[in-house]
Design brief:
Largest sheet: 4 strands, parallel
Number of helices: 3
Radius of gyration: 12 Å
Helix content: 25-40%
Shape: globular
Distance between the termini: 25 Å
Structural class: alpha/beta
Length: 83
């Protein structure tokens, strides 16, 4: 793994438990549609937005070195909107 600090986006970060592990690689932003999950992620001291990724993808397009989207594809109705 490179020593370069990366910018990471964790889509559907839930409570931030896994998200907190990614901070070792650089700056991380979590995003989740669930208000309670966002609150828990922020409680861990992590940056997090409450939003649907389909609604904000243009704002963040090409803004991250790494995008993590674990366990969400089955919840997305329009899968092409996430790419």
């Amino acid at each position: 793994i490179s020593s370069k600090k990366l910018s990471l986006l964790d889509i559907a970060c839930n409570d931030g438990e896994l998200t907190s592990n990614y901070t070792q690689f650089g700056k991380v932003l979590g995003i989740d549609i669930n208000k309670e999950a966002v609150a828990l992620t922020k409680k861990r001291g992590l940056a997090c937005l409450q939003a649907d990724i389909a609604d904000i993808k243009e704002k963040y397009k090409s803004s991250f070195d790494v995008v993590i989207a674990g366990d969400i594809i089955e919840h997305v109705l329009d899968r092409k909107s996430v790419v």
